[in-house]
Design brief:
It contains five helices and no strands. It is mainly alpha-helical and about 100 residues long. Helix 3 runs parallel beside helix 5 and helix 4 runs antiparallel to helix 5.
């Protein structure tokens, strides 16, 4: 599934097709560590595509299987990016 997603992207295919392959690869993966990694990859791709509800679902899957600090840090980063994009929050530095 991951290879299909890569081929779809290389051919300039529809982004949705690539996203569907990544999500499907996540759902079919039995190994918790690999499933977490695939969920994180799919969440990042869906964030870029603007599929925010899907990002939330994939982050839940990743969080359930996260076993190392690096995975948790990636979850936190994607969640922060999602929060920034969906709230439209623009913060300014106090001096500006």
């Amino acid at each position: 599934m991951e290879r299909c997603a890569d081929r779809a992207q290389a051919r300039g295919g529809v982004a949705g097709g690539r996203l569907a392959f990544l999500e499907r690869a996540t759902m079919l993966t039995q190994d918790p560590a690999r499933r977490t990694e695939r969920a994180l990859g799919a969440a990042g791709a869906n964030l870029q595509a603007g599929a925010f509800d899907t990002v939330r679902q994939l982050l839940s899957i990743a969080e359930a299987g996260a076993t190392i600090d690096l995975q948790q840090a990636r979850i936190d980063l994607i969640a922060a990016d999602l929060a920034f994009v969906t709230t439209g929050a623009v913060t300014r530095h106090p001096c500006c």
